[in-house]
Each structure stands twice: as C-alpha cells, then as structure tokens.
Design goal:
The chain has about 300 residues and is of the alpha+beta class. About 35% of the residues lie in helices and about 20% in strands.
Length: about 300
C-alpha cells in the first residue's frame, strides 16, 4: 500500500481508541479471571463449533489449500468486532439467574471503570448511571404493550440509563419473541419463576449522542444438554444434533459455561462519545456517510 499522511487529530483519536480497548480488556481479565486467547480462530464448516447467532449473519469462509475438501469459517461482520469470552461454571450450583446477574454487574463495573479512565484521561463527562437495572423482556412488554421491541428498548434505557434485558429468544406471553437468538447458544427457555424464562440477555445503555438505546453486549448462560434438546425442538432444528460440537455437549464432554460478546468498537464509540462507529473502526461506508459524519476518515 502507498503511505497515507495522518493528521495529528487522527493519530490522537487512534491512541484514545487503543487505550480504551486496552483498559477494558484488563478489566475483563481482572474482574472475571479470564485469559486472553488470540483470534480469529477458524472452525470447520458444518461441525457446529460456530453458532449462527440470529440466523441472519454471514460467516467469512476460506479454503485451506493444505487440507483437501475442507472449508473453514469465522463469524464476523464487516461492522462488528468484539471481545468473545467464556467462563466455566458449576452446573449444579451456578446455572441460575443470580449467577447471570452477578456476572452482568461485574462486567458493568468494568465498563464504569473504563468510563472513569476516559474521563480522567481525555476530559469527557461521564454519563452512565452507577448501577445497571435488570428488567425481563416479558415485564418490558407489559410496560409498553403498544411499542415495538426497539421502541421498548429506547424507552427503558432512556429512563434508567443502563439496563440488562433478560430473556432474549424465547416466546413472550403474546407469542412473539423480543429478539432472535440461536437455539444452540444461550439458554432462553429455562423458567426462572412462574412468569419468566431465560438465563440470557443484552446489556443496553442510553447513548446521549445518538439519543437512542445502544447495545453493548449479548450474553448468557450457555445451553446444557437438556436445554439444547429443548430449544432445538422448539425451533425445529433437531438436525443440528448431528454436529460434532452438539454431540460432544450431549455426551457431557464439554463444561457448562457462561459467556457472550462485547462490542469493542461499540464500547469505544460510546465512551469516546462519537457519532458514528466509523470514527473508531476501520470499515467501508457509503459515500454519503463520509460527508455527513464529522471526523470520519
């Protein structure tokens, strides 16, 4: 590539992005006891290791010349980069709502610590609330019965500032789901009380720059062998039980975990109070985006 001359403002912005990511990475490692594993890691197409998330994402697939008749993939959108994390839990004592909530609070503490670092280092005014509020998607539906799912998210995050919305993927009392979630990924079907189900959810915050709800993370306790079979039956995807990963889980060869994804560029965009994700991420954008967003290079 030919050399590109960078402005001092651009260099400063890149340094800020890097520092935000580094600081929050340290928060994840320290608060959750995680070990960083370098990525991307390619998985063989069709073995079930890669989840299909909502079913709409397209995986990046490659051929490996040294391996005959094999294709490998990594699920990664042009617009998404994230911290993917997993933590082993005890099936008998930790597959419960309290574990989910405690983990969410720990992650949110890391976000708040990073926000303070941004404020101290770059002079930006903090805006996130001290605590995150827990709301089940069924309770949210009843609060705003005439709203769409996205309108509900906007209303609740505008009210509380930061919300963990529990129960994403399972049918609510009106027969609809709040949002799609793969049946072989998070547990969205386990009852937690008479009214509610689901051991997963999304971290949503109010973004004062966009004046809208802003998703930072989707996460949850992963499916157990029993939950895997139940959810695949609900969605009619029992054929996935023939995948290698699914067989290993059913045979109890894999540990029970809680995990999720946290958007790296989304967090940097939020805490650095940017208007567009292209200001913190290398990407390809329509021509009108470059002219309408200040500082987008």
């Amino acid at each position: 590539m030919r050399p590109i001359i960078m402005s001092s403002h651009y260099v400063q912005q890149q340094q800020q992005i890097s520092k935000v990511k580094q600081f929050f990475s340290q928060q994840l490692e320290q608060k959750l006891g995680l070990i960083e594993v370098q990525a991307p890691i390619l998985a063989k197409v069709g073995d079930g290791t890669q989840d299909n998330l909502s079913g709409h994402e397209n995986a990046v697939a490659v051929n490996v010349k040294a391996i005959t008749d094999s294709r490998y993939e990594v699920v990664h959108s042009v617009y998404v980069d994230q911290w993917d994390w997993e933590q082993v839990i005890c099936e008998s004592t930790q597959r419960c709502l309290s574990t989910l909530k405690q983990t969410v609070e720990t992650i949110y503490q890391g976000i708040k610590a990073t926000e303070k670092y941004v404020s101290d280092s770059f002079g930006l005014t903090p805006f996130l609330p001290t605590e995150i509020t827990f709301v089940h998607s069924e309770a949210l539906r009843k609060m705003y019965p005439d709203f769409t799912a996205k309108q509900r998210e906007k209303a609740i995050t505008q009210e509380y500032g930061a919300v963990f919305l529990i129960g994403i993927g399972g049918a609510l009392s009106d027969g609809k789901i709040h949002d799609v979630r793969a049946p072989d990924y998070d547990d969205w079907s386990t009852p937690t009380c008479e009214q509610y189900m689901g051991l997963n959810g999304d971290i949503l915050v109010w973004n004062p720059v966009l004046e809208d709800a802003f998703e930072i993370s989707s996460m949850g306790i992963r499916v157990s062998p029993e939950v895997l079979q139940t959810q695949l039956s609900i969605t009619g995807d029992e054929d996935r039980l023939e995948f290698d990963w699914h067989k290993a889980l059913l045979e109890s060869k894999l540990p029970q975990t809680i995990g999720g994804g946290i958007g790296q560029s989304r967090l940097a965009m939020l805490l650095l109070q940017k208007q567009h994700i292209g200001q913190v991420q290398v990407g390809v954008w329509p021509a009108q985006t470059y002219t309408s967003v200040d500082g987008l290079l």
